Amino acid sequence: MRKRILDYLMRINCLLAKQDAGTDWNAVLAEHIDQIRFFQHERLVHLIVTVTFALVLMMLMILVFSIDQVSILIIVFFVFVVVMLLAYLSHYYILETSIQKMYKQYDAILQRKVGRVPV
Questions:
Q1: What are the tens digits of pLDDT across the range 62-108?
Q2: Tens-digit pLDDT profile for residues 26-44
């Protein structure tokens, strides 16, 4: 997903950098709106998963600090959850910042299409 969103951002940036008068900005805008919706959905799913892992981590921390004898299985599970949470946070960060960039691209596409950016 990371490669897909970064490739798409680069493609739109290249399209916006060109001074090609033959570009169908209506089609570009429609595709861009579809891509924004797709990546927003992906962002929502990853937010839910990230929050779930964070809650599981909190419960594990409470468990670890509340019992006298911590088993190796709990420690392994704790490390697994921490690693997964970090991976999801990293992925969510890419999605969030990329979608913010897509909003700016949307404004630039509108500017190309109608000659101004809406308020």
A1: 988 888 888 888 889 999 999 999 999 999 999 999 999 999 999 99
A2: 899 999 999 999 999 999 9
DSSP codes, 87-110: HHHHHHHHHHHHHHHHHHHHHHHH
Select from 112, 93, 111, 91 the least CA-distant residue to 101: 93
- Which region holds residue 53: left if phi is over 0, alpha if psi is between -120 and 50, else beta? alpha
Alpha helices in the chain (DSSP H): 2-17, 25-66, 72-114
Q: Residues of 58-77 as b/e, b for ≥16 C-beta within 10 angstroms?
A: eebeeeeeeeeeeeeeeeee
